[in-house]
């Protein structure tokens, strides 16, 4: 029997990707990571305009399935760097580079790489009962899956260091107050709010939203002069799109626009 650990549902131009290994708190093994990458790759389709990532059961994700990377007796140590290179780093890159909005609906505890994958998404909603944990320090490890890049930018150096060196839990409401996530919401409303948001985004000029993602990501390592050039180049692309023409026409005609999210013709 084949057990599916990644569930995909496409409705209203929204792809919902559910981590479905609840008996393991949605901890990733290699097969689950590959399935997640396949789901993200499929979201590149023009038929998909927004993405939701969530978890099944009581946790969002416990991160890496440690049973899969435990050192075996009389065997050399597992190369965790290689695990990151072939499993986790491609996931973070895929989320960040996807040219459309990615919403993460954190339904429960998000720990380790699971937390950092959530934070790599564009808009993070969390159930009020959810918690974010960086437990790497308790294993003698370094935060990974983009954690050492994301956390200082979201929280500042002082909070990022304390969170990763102490390994303490942080509640969803504290994460919202610190600007680590967008919103903490009632548990029973999490998916409704995420789905409403995704459906709304799916009607918007998603090609331009993807370029906006690209511009904001570029700003992390750019000078003002460099960023002005990035904005110029991306605005040139956005201005050549059908969505821009439709947006202007709708504004002039005083009607609701009908966006397609398609890139400019080559």
List the helices and strands and how they pair.
Layout: E1 6-11, E2 14-19, H1 30-42, E3 50-55, E4 59-61, H2 66-69, H3 80-97, E5 102-106, E6 109-111, H4 113-119, E7 123-127, E8 131-133, H5 147-155, H6 157-166, E9 170-171, H7 172-177, E10 183-185, H8 190-202, H9 206-219, H10 224-239, H11 242-253
Parallel strand pairs: 2-3, 3-5, 4-6, 5-7, 6-8, 7-10
Antiparallel strand pairs: 1-2, 8-9
Helix pairs in contact: 1-3, 5-6, 9-10
Report on the biggest sheet. 6 strands, mixed
| CATH topology (fold) name of the largest domain | 2-enoyl-CoA Hydratase, Chain A, domain 1
Q: At the first level of CATH, what is the class of the largest domain?
A: Alpha Beta
> Averaged pLDDT, please?
96
Q: Note the quaternary state here.
A: single chain
Strand order within the widest sheet?
A: 1-2-3-5-7-10
| Contiguous helical run count | 11
Radius of gyration, whole Å: 19 Å
What is the name of the CATH architecture of the largest domain?
Answer: Alpha-Beta Complex
How would you name the CATH homologous superfamily of the largest domain? 2-enoyl-CoA Hydratase, Chain A, domain 1
Order of helices and strands: EEHEEHHEEHEEHHEHEHHHH
Classify the helix fraction into a percent range.
40-55%
User: How many structural domains in the coordinates?
Assistant: 2
Count of strand segments: 10
Distance between the termini: 46 Å
In the predicted model, the low-confidence regions spanning at least 5 consecutive residues are none
Structural class: alpha/beta
Beta fraction: 15-25%
Shape descriptor reads: globular
